[in-house]
Design brief:
It comes from Oesophagostomum dentatum (Nodular worm). By secondary structure, the chain is α/β, with parallel strands linked by helices. The protein is built from three helices and three strands. Helix 2 links the parallel strand 1 and strand 2.
Length: 85
Amino acid sequence: MADAFTSLKTKYPDYEVWVTGHSLGGSLASLAASFIVGHGYASSNTTKLVTFGQPRTGDDTYAGAYGAQVFYRENMTSDEFAVCE
């Protein structure tokens, strides 16, 4: 997957990288965004993370490093969007 990501990033250098997930997928998306930036696959200013509810991910050390890496992160809650019934 790293080769495919690198190939696409080379082909589309101006594109942003959006990572998203719901619940456990939100936690995995958080880890993925941190990995992408931390390993230099994309810069922190072009990597965006949006989660739809996620369990707490990592410890204090992870949270500090993560906060320095991923600048655009949103956790959507029911207060922020219309819930269809």
